[in-house]
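seq:
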Amino acid sequence: MNLKQLAEHLGLSQTTVSRALNGYPEVGEETRKRVAEAALTHGYHPNSNARRLALGRTGTIGLTLPFGHSMSIDPLFAEFLSGLAVGITENESDLLIIPVKAEPDPIQRMARLKSVDAIIVSSPMREEPLVNQLRSMKVPFVLHGRTNSIEPYAYLDIDNDGAFQRATDLLIDLGHTRIGLINATPWLNFAADREAGWRRALEARGLSAPPSYLRSGILTEESSYRFAHDILSLAEPPTALLCSSMLSALGIGRAVADLGLTIGADVSLIAHDDGVPSIRPTTMVPPLTTTFSSLRKAGEHIESVARALGTGANVADHQEIWPVDIVFRGSVQRPRGRKG
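struct:
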């Protein structure tokens, strides 16, 4: 069955059927569902190249990759890509990874050649130059995270600030008064938000956030080992630590053991978990308390947002902050000397 036959079968125009199948926002949900079901029933498969030419779209979504970033050693980026791949595959689209240095040359080339329908900006900085560049070049874009832009933009983020404030509150409620933070580089927006949540929780309870209890940088297992070893070797070390990734938690666990301490009994630990299958909090000893949000689900969803923006969707309709769960496990206990 071709497009004309499918349209006649449904009693709709070919334009309406085409727009329904290609996700145009002006087509009602009931009509879209009816068209999709009929296409599946009758085995209709649109010619993707003809569709792209007719709609003036490339069928390609761009994803920025900060220059020097290595996907081969970053399970978080790989997990996000896995989520993106779900929508890319289902919609017969393509994904173009764009390495980005400080200057916008690759982005300018994409805009000039109209190589992509929309761009996903990953791990934005607090002052993200790509936002103004993409806006000035009239390229639709969505941020995986947020930035300090005055003008509205599309984004999908998690509540990093609220998650780390709640995690800190949990530790305080258990009796911890000395709480450290091992975090990503502070110019990344999510890291700045997590630090802000940690500070706000401490200040609200009349506690301090001394500089010696904070370490920020590129988080690897080795760097996190060094950060934790330094903090826990202080004359008055924290009794609890927060950290921004499961990879970081692995390094912290080694440092705790090397210092003759035990996670839970001597040092409570909470990490952020993005759901990476290769690093599971339940397999650690003791099982790790985490703030949790799935990177894979974020990748799946942001692909649909980018696709919608590429068809002219309103930016204001795609500004989302997902809540973050806290999963309590054995790595968090009352500090020694506290009862009740």
